[in-house]
Design a protein that fits this description.
417 residues, alpha+beta, 8-stranded mixed β-sheet, 21% strand, elongated, binds adenosine-5'-triphosphate, binds magnesium ion
Amino acid sequence: MEIKAIRGFNDILPDEIGKWQFVEETAREVFEGFGFSEIRIPIIERTELFSRGIGEATDIVEKEMYTFIDRSGNSLTLRPEATASMARAYLEHQIYSFDPVAKLYCIGPMFRYERPQKGRYRQFYQIDAEVFGVENPMVDAEVILMLIQFLKKVGLENLELQINSLGCRACRPRYREELKNFLMSKSFQLCEDCQRRLHTNPLRIFDCKVETCQEATANAPQVINFLCAECQGHFDKVKEYLEMAGLEYILNPRMVRGLDYYTRTAFEVVSYSLGSQNAVTGGGRYDNLFQEIGGLDVPGIGFAIGMERLISLLPKDKEFIQHPHLFVAALGEESYKEAYQLINQLHLEGVRAELDYEGKSLKSQMRKADKLKARFVLILGEEELKRGRVVLRNMETKSQEEIPIDNLLKSIKEKIF
Ligand code: ATP
Ligand code: MG
């Protein structure tokens, strides 16, 4: 029997990996420039961390989690997102005792039991960035600025920043009631999931992709009109700071976040090049998460970027694969010994050098060098070696020259770097 990968779980192959590495390196560079440090957290946690942190009535907890009982009878879950784990680590290691403000980022796989389709997988990767310990709206704008700067730096275009405010514990309950009453009268239009959400989490109905549910919410009351004075003041400041940073945004009063812990600022960056699965990244402020999981009252704000969706948007003309600098073509046993020693030295010097292990003809070695898109080929012919010389061929210009074998390493490095 041929064993295949599980549906919704992808291999990321060598011909794609250049894009992944480029995106990750750019994230590290941009985020560290903004004063963020990387944190690595486990991919498995106690189920309660997510069920309490993310909220019992969210799609993720209700139906998307990979939860299992381990051999000791503990209920464990493959992480569906990183924020709750990062918050747990901040509390568990008392990171706040050094400085209450922590700026952290994390890159890695997440797991959700969703129906696999284009842009939606069961194992997918996220880049997460979070600031813990700051309520100041300046940080909301700064985090958004960092996100946009990153997305532009990787080469994304046609981006639109959408923002909203979701209110807080003081003002959202009144809005929730109002929304529920409005949707009750339209409940016949709602899908089965949304019928249920009407009672557990009516804000989520805005997010439903079913057309009749979208229609039902068309003239629904908007959370933005129910904000208390503090939330309104906070949101006004966020907008002011965004404008100061020169960022354009669109107010999207229908935007909600899938997780219960979000309060106040919510934002999304959408790309019109993506189609229906158009959310590349979403984020927002969550001032209740910490109380849910650890009792301390710590505000937080952050975002998660979906790597697969981001990668599908990278500019098509950009080259991400690292081709060899040099292919060493050897002919005959003595020549191979020479090639072997040379190539080992080149690798130590950071030259990407390749050779053919199968002792093929010169013609087929040249074909291989061509296929690998090597910039130069060094031909170690037995005749030339006897004279203490080798041939260096530039694959782009097709010109070749004989160079002395003495100081070969130095001459090659001069050509390449
Ligand atoms: P969606 O509405 O598309 O289900 P979400 O609200 O569940 O997204 P978040 O929890 O905010 O998504 O996660 C942040 C980002 O992670 C999304 O914007 C998306 O790019 C990515 N993402 C979420 N779920 C998946 C998935 N199953 N496969 C691939 N990427 C995903
Ligand atoms: Mg989802």
